[in-house]
Structure formats: C-alpha cells, structure tokens
Amino acid sequence: MIQREAGYFFAALRFFTRLPIPTWVGHSAEQLNHAARYFPLVGVIVGAIGAGATLAAAQVWPTAIAVLIGMAATLLATGAFHEDGLADTVDGMGGGWTREDVLRIMKDSRIGSYGAIGIGVMLLAKFEALVNLGGLPDTGYFISPWLTFFAAIVAGHGVSRFASTTLIHALDYARDDDSAKSKPLATRMGKGELALAGLFGLAPCVVLPWPKVAVALALVALVTWLAARWFDRRIGGYTGDCLGATQQLTELAFYLGLLCACI
C-alpha cells in the first residue's frame, strides 16, 4: 500500500513539475487516475522551493529581487505549467464566443494577446503581493517573521492547488476527446481523495495568523466558486487549462487575503 501511494505521489510530481523521480515508478493509467489527491502536496513542495530561494536571496539582496528569484525558482520547477493553463484559458474565454470556439482556442499551443496580457498581469500582481508580504514582518504583527513569510508562500501554493482539485470533484470534464493538450490526471475525485488533498493543501496554514488565514481562505473559496461557475457556464465543466488558471487565481487570492488591512 505504501509503495502504491508513493507511486501515485511521484506520478503527480512528474505530471506537474520537472523534478526528478525514482526510476521504479513507471507509467500507468491507474497512477494518473489517483494522483490528483497529491496535487496540493506537490504544491507544498514547489512552494517550499520558491520560499527557500526567496529567503536565501533575501539575505543578500532587497526583498523585491529576492521575490523575483523565488518566483523564477517555482517557474523552473513547474516549467510554467499552471501559467500556461492560465494563458490558454484567458485566450479561450476572451476570444471564443461558443463552447466549441473556446475549447478550440484553449487547445491551440500558440499564445494570443489575451493570454500574454493575462500572464503579465498575474506575474506582476503576485510579485507585488509577495513583496508586500515580505514587508509585513516590519510591522511587528507576525510573531516569527521569516517563518511566517516562508509559510505564506508555501501555503499559497498548497491551498491554490487544493482549490483546483475541488473543480475535479465538483464539475464535469468538458472535453469529449482524448487529444486535449492539458488533460488532467483524473476526471473525477471521491470525497476521501478530496479530503486527503485538503489535508495536504491546508497544513501549512497552521503556522500563520488565524484572522489573516480566515480572510485568505474565504477569498480563495470565493474565487474558486466564481471560476467554477464561469467555466461551467462557458464550456459546461473544466479542462486541464482551467485547473491551471484556477491555481493561479487562487494563489494570488490567498496572498491578497493575507494582506487584507481590514483586520
């Protein structure tokens, strides 16, 4: 059982990142069908890579440069997998009128003006949010400044990937063909798998200030719900690109929630 679950985890790690995995893992449809439960855990690992790079760079350079280095580290770790999903989704939703048009544009590997603008705005927004999060320790609000900044980045990646998995559980897979460019690991998730994904995704939040986390999670839930409604209305469900777009949107929502000045 342990080896089987390890195989599922490494299948998710191989699917969502460019990180090396053991040679014994192999390839199978069963692994892919069950690997989505480890999507948030992969996010925690990617977040830890980004947070580690950010904090290491912050010992030498200003916060803004350190954040750029950390963001670059996560992009290298994932191959910009989710950013590509965001670009394709924005291209499809912005340029297509019918369901068929949207799906056709999303499947096109070329990036359009909507997608380019979407990626640019998202990267800039996340950069600004993280720079401001890096400045929060100066306020004295966080008990352990560097730990909380590290945890905020890790939690942003974990929580946002859990938000994406909720779409797999709640919505239908929108494509009826097997040639999708970004087909997800599984087209359905059971409640037990979703609960395990939630455990992995939410675990880093425990070391963050609870009032801030509550706001951040509420904003993530709202963005996830709005995205799900929008995808269901436009294409009758979700695609792999939609999952990537949801991850990007909810990661930003989590950071913005932590930065909320109303509490």
Describe this structure in words.
It is a single chain. The protein is an all-alpha fold. The protein has one domain (2-21, 29-259). It is built from 11 helices and no strands. It has helices spanning 2-16, 29-34, 39-58, 63-78, 81-95, 99-107, 113-135, 145-170, 191-202, 210-235, 240-259. The protein is globular. It starts with a helix and ends with a helix.
> Can you count the beta strands?
0
Give the termini separation.
45 Å
Label the structural class. mainly alpha
For the sheet with most strands, the description reads: none
Shape: globular
Fraction of residues in β-strands: under 5%
Number of domains: 1
H and E order: HHHHHHHHHHH
- On the 0 to 100 scale, the average pLDDT is 89
Uncertain residue ranges: 138-142
Task: Write a compact overview of the structure shown.
The protein is mostly helical.
List the topology elements.
Elements (H helix, E strand, L loop, with lengths): L1 H15 L12 H6 L4 H20 L4 H16 L2 H15 L3 H9 L5 H23 L9 H26 L20 H12 L7 H26 L4 H20 L4
Helix pairs in contact: 3-4, 3-8, 3-9, 4-7, 5-6, 5-7, 5-11, 7-11, 8-9, 8-10, 8-11, 10-11
Task: For this entry, give a set of tags.
mainly alpha, 263 residues, 71% helix
